[in-house]
UniProtKB/TrEMBL annotation:
The lineage of its organism: Bacteria, Pseudomonadati, Pseudomonadota, Alphaproteobacteria, Rhodobacterales. The keyword NADP does not apply. Keywords: ATP-binding, Nodulation, Nucleotide-binding, Transport. This is ABC-2 type transport system ATP-binding protein. Residues 5-235 form the ABC transporter domain. PANTHER family: ABC TRANSPORTER ATP-BINDING PROTEIN, ABC TRANSPORTER ATP-BINDING PROTEIN NATA.
Length: 240
């Protein structure tokens, strides 16, 4: 059973408006895949389907080998999600936020503490665990959300515009951390963004445009000699 993510022939409509049309891609276990698309491309709609906020009868989604329509609980249990809008409790500390999430997943005691400590280490925020979220900068808040998404040991991690609103240094630190999760822990990552500078040549790149997959391959091979920004602009006609 693959620990990766598979999207096959997925179509979704809002009434008469087709937001996704026969979208297919397959992310191998341990790969970092960037889902790049201009505003309105369909990224949020795809995230909604991957996380089962909505469903579609057209197409198939598999998370770590589990069909999300037939076995939603098994599929969602293998998935970690960082949504675009922050969802941490500002008045709790980092550790309390993670502890609450662990409890929601039925984890407690030494097991919960072990998972929390490992996630805090992974995101290099262990020394801040006792600080209230309200007092953290934007980068550390995002890292806390990523740490929280790892507590239940998912094999697939979805991040929807995870660096929105952050400065360049924080964006770099977060993309580095998430790449390490792939390389060192074998996590499969789908990283939705509209920022070309977050994508590396060795990353898998899926370009979504007007609800369709416009390009899919290794970023370096797709862009060739052109900067990714120019390739993306030419391919989509949209500014990156
Ligand atoms: N509730 C809705 N009803 C009708 N059309 C919608 C609805 N939500 C989104 N759409 C349309 O579906 C298409 C895809 O939207 P979606 O929000 O998934 O794109 P996106 O790539 O996430 O863009 P953004 O980065 O701006 O959120 C767009 O054309 C959008 O206008």
């Amino acid at each position: 059973m693959s620990e990766g993510l598979r999207v096959a022939d997925v179509t979704f409509r809002y009434g008469a408006k087709t937001a996704l049309e026969e979208v297919s891609f397959d992310i191998a276990p341990g790969r970092f895949a960037a889902l790049l698309g201009p505003n309105g491309a369909g990224k949020s709609t795809l995230f909604g389907l991957l996380t089962r906020l909505f469903t579609t009868a057209e197409g198939r989604i598999e998370v770590a080998g589990h069909d999300i329509a037939r076995a939603p609980r098994a599929a969602l249990a293998r998935m970690g999600v960082v949504f675009q809008s922050p969802t941490l409790d500002q008045d709790l500390t980092i550790r309390q936020n993670l502890g609450y999430f662990a409890a929601l997943h039925g984890l407690s005691g030494a097991e919960a503490r072990g998972r929390i400590d490992a996630a805090l280490d992974r995101l290099a925020i262990a020394e801040r665990a006792g600080e209230r979220v309200r007092d953290l900068n934007g980068g550390h808040k995002r890292r806390t959300e990523i740490a929280r998404a790892l507590i239940h040991a998912p094999s697939v991690l979805l991040l929807d515009e995870a660096t929105v609103g952050l400065d360049a240094a924080s964006r770099q630190a977060i993309t580095d951390h998430v790449h390490r999760l792939c390389a060192e822990d074998g996590l499969t990552v789908l990283w939705a963004t509209h920022l070309t500078d977050e994508v590396r040549d060795s990353d898998r790149l899926v370009v979504l445009h007007r609800g369709r997959v416009l390009a899919d391959g290794e970023c370096g091979a797709l862009r060739g000699d052109a900067p990714l920004k120019d390739y993306f602009l030419t391919a989509t006609g949209a500014p990156a």
